[in-house]
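Weekly structure sync - notes
Attendees: PM, LS, DV (DV joined late)
Agenda: review two folding runs queued last week.

Item 1: First target. Sequence and structure tokens pasted below for the record.
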Amino acid sequence: MGKLDSKIPSGPLAEKWTKHKNEINLVNPANKRNIDVIVVGTGLAGSSAAASMAELGYNVKTFCYQDSPRRAHSIAAQGGINASKNYQGDGDSDYRLFYDTIKGGDYRSREANVYRLAEVSSNIIDQCVAQGVPFAREYGGLLDNRSFGGVLVSRTFYAKGQTGQQLLLGAYGAVNRQINRGKIKSHTRHEMLDLVLVDGKARGIIARNLVTGEIERHSAHAVVIASGGYGNLFFLSTYCMGANVMAAWRTHKKGAYFANPCFTQIHPTCIPVSGDHQSKLTLMSESLRNDGRIWVPKKLEDAKAIREGRLKPTELAEEDRDYYLERRYPAFGNLVPRDVASRAAKERCDAGYGVNKTGEAVYLDFSAAIERYGKEKAYTMGLKDADKDTIRKLGEEVVEAKYGNLFQMYEKIVDENPYKTPMMIYPAVHYTMGGLWVDYNLMTTIPGCYSAGEANFSDHGANRLGASALMQGLADGYFVLPYTIGDYLADDIRTGPIPTDSPEFDEAEKAVKEKLNRLLSIKGENSVDYYHKKLGKIMWNKCGMSRNEKGLKEAIKEIAELREDFWKNVRVPGEANSKNQELEKAGRVADFLEIGELFAMDALNREESCGGHFREEYQTPEGEALRDDKNFRYVSAWEYKGEPRESKLHKEELVFENVELKTRSYK
């Protein structure tokens, strides 16, 4: 255990995956019936993996803390899913999708994994169409595409602003079919509290029934962690309230390396923070940047007047608006990658041009798109001399057809009509590129323990391009893991059922119960949320959109002190043997207090700027990220040694044979 062997196949890049599938071991259908697999997490990666493996004949057990797999956070992915089908005829290909993803990730991801992702992307669309996912279609009947940040082609398939939800319903239908066949046993309202190792292999989990409080033992021949990302350690994020790092972090503490924890995605189009009362943030889909233009006032006095309510944005003349992304990045304009757009927004707001009461917001304006679409629709209707009101009305109808539910959601939250007044947006934590280190087969450094989707680190490098999360989750679940897990399970066809009455299960259950009882016995003065909010402020202020050596060293010290205080002064009411949501939160925040320190350590160690990791000491004269390929062209893989500060760094050197390493430019 612990050796960083990525198991990347030899041969030309475009042939690696096919060659690998032809050479790995298989399990025959009769033997699959005797093998059990646990899948933790039922989002797109977990549900697609569970359904695919059950269809192959494995006995699958799924676990999720929600009351239904349908409620996984994958439903919040609004904008679309990438695939290199080239339906638009604009020059897309597997290689171009691969290249855009490598470049978008600022050259900090594996070539082999990313090319495989691009290679299977088209299969995902076919699979989902067969499941009935209602992708948008163009006039001729073909599936429609739109563009997303960081690319020059249209390759994003979408279902209005509900793409994640529709894709998850497709996967959920496939899961339900296998539940009905008896091939999947679904455990909802269950939370994984520990991984159980037998002879060094992952052989099961300890889970808590969140309704009864009962601690349960579940065994299997392999375990798949597909439990999503850890962005909620920032407290305010676009994640759902319950999203946590528990399954991945407890797996890390059992020996799985944790890779690139400091690589966090800051999404540029989030509804801004309105006050201390908030417990989460809401995302506006990146798809809106296709038609929305981002701007702030050119003059400081105008920005101040807007903040004070003396001036409306619609009253500001065109020549007094600074479309700063179009000005700074003319080739990509408003469709630069997320990290670039986020830093640009922060720079303008820090300079005093922010437009809401807190000074931390910019405008996303659809007036130009409404006019353009209105003129086009009027022309096709034969209205050659349509007046402004007619054009406006027709244009709004087109925009509503494309983004209606997003506009409706914005109006409900902000109480402003985005058809009439520009949306206000500001960057927020949205996704984590870091996660459990996995090899080419998606296996962690623990034999028999796999990780899929956002829970692993594998495909996005230092910055994820928009619409690639759904692509990776479904690629891992439908088209990678069902092949690669068989290579490992081929050695287990004679193992027989894994017993749960072994010393290893006894020890794991005992440790879990002791931790729960310790949390309940502290009887301190502060709530769990008190510590979560304090951690979030440390993370956002010192490990957020930009970092520096001084702030990171302070963060490491402050998080360690906060964690020490947590274990002395937290108050968790109730008892362990019943439904207890405060106890659930306490366990999750305890893990956040540990990964937060490792996050800051990783950011301090990486003395360069790349993608979403922006160290203020390492930037170009224009304020862009400055990589150091000589010293930091590697994956940081951390081994747990008892405390976050004692973690040992392992490096997986990244080799680039098919793309040229160069400074990213979107100008």
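Item 2: Second target, run right after the first with the same settings.
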Amino acid sequence: MNLSLYAYDSHWISIDCGMMIRQDLPDSPLQVPNLDTAKALGIIPQALFITHGHEDHIGAVAWLWPHWGCPIYATPLAGALLRLKFAERNLSPAAIHIVEPGEALESGPFTLRYLPVTHSIPESCALMVSVGPYRLLHTGDWKLDSDPLIGTPVTAAQFRALAPVDLVVGDSTNAPMPGHSGSEGEVAAALERTLRQCPGRVVVSCFASNLARISAIGQAARRCGRRVSLMGRSMERMVSVARGLGYLEDFPSLVPLHDLGYLPPDEIVVIATGSQGEPRAALHRLVQGHHPLFELKPDDSVIFSAKAIPGNERLIERLKQGLDRLGVTVYDEFSHPELHATGHPAQEELKKLYQWLQPGHLLPVHGEARHQQAHQQLASELGIEAPLAPVNGDLIRFDNDGLNLERRHPQPPCIVSQNSVVPHPGLEANNRNRRHGSLYLALSVTATETGWSRIGRLILDNSETSPMDEQSFTDWLDEQVEEIHAETLAELRLALQPRLIGWLAEHLHRMPDVHLQIMAAEMPADS
């Protein structure tokens, strides 16, 4: 989880607001930052700045932002993902403001500039923060990649121009790693070589947010004469959002999962969620034989194009044991390290950035204690003051005397349910105040050879909501109904509801309560 709070002259801002999945607990609930300390100290941020769209940086926003009600600033991809999350929780997206990389913003005495960096998700940015007499760089997650596939490499001149900075709040995730992190371009070439030697169907599992990796898999599949399908809701959502923003323009056309049975095994690549052994994810369902449209067989291969997050090793090992029992060939970070590249800087990249910035002080964040300590050691070798390795809840002062720990506030876990459809405790009133009216929608559909089609009159009552373009809405709705693959009306409604909420969140000023009814009807005889 990432939630950093900065204050100057009693004006508070927040950078990032992430969550983590507690796979060690029943039903894999979510853990979000605990706000008890902030409430006790009277801390309410006046603005929330998002560095990039990973769940450990945006996943808790929809849970915690209603306590603050402040403006949220994010780049287009992170902003689109946040709007989807707000729609799912019936929150108005009006507070979400889109920032282009390179843009500067102000909040009270703070001036923040978004500086593009390469990472495993597009539009990642470091934040250059100027406040009072101080200039600090909050790096977010970053690396130096000369061939990132999506986006452009880091501009050295841009960071040299900032030198010297007073403080770097810096990513420690790979600080113990010597040398340089790999390039996404190198991974793409390795994926193509591997696909060419796999005899049957291939499932590649990676993080849904790693769009460069997804693009590389798609391009490698195309060059190897294979068709691509997606498996997992988060994978489908991320690819849909990315395409809408102009990413993945060269990505091959997708094959629906239910059509894969018509293709020869050596013409199939499935990009699936579940590289961390998540019990709810697509890869776990395949191992358990619970997927209704796809079954792994002995000639198939599974590629783990992701590194194990610390704490997930046991789940991943159990998953691999299941694959072994099925006779599936497994490629992972140990047997084929070339099939993954980290999104965080190794030692030579850290040294290069600090040579550009010439910082006086470093606060090592992200990672575990051993990563922070390795970061401190590297800073010491470069003559940078790094006296602290902070833990969650530390209140730290930075002034002319350097970095000093003022107080350590214990942070008990705050657990919320992934399946919860009720607001987080204490948010009910805020949610109610942000809704506006009710929208009632009833549509008749009929089954076709390829899915469903709307027929007859659309019953739409939005008299209590803000105005909307009904013709555009109807056209959009028809496209969605025909695009969704569902066996039953219940499945169709389940698939259509979140898309409907997302569209309304994008096009209405206030988010209404949505009541959706779908009825089966016969196609007229003259059709």
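Discussion on item 2: Residues 447 and 488 are 9 Å apart (CA to CA).
Action: LS to circulate a short write-up before next sync.
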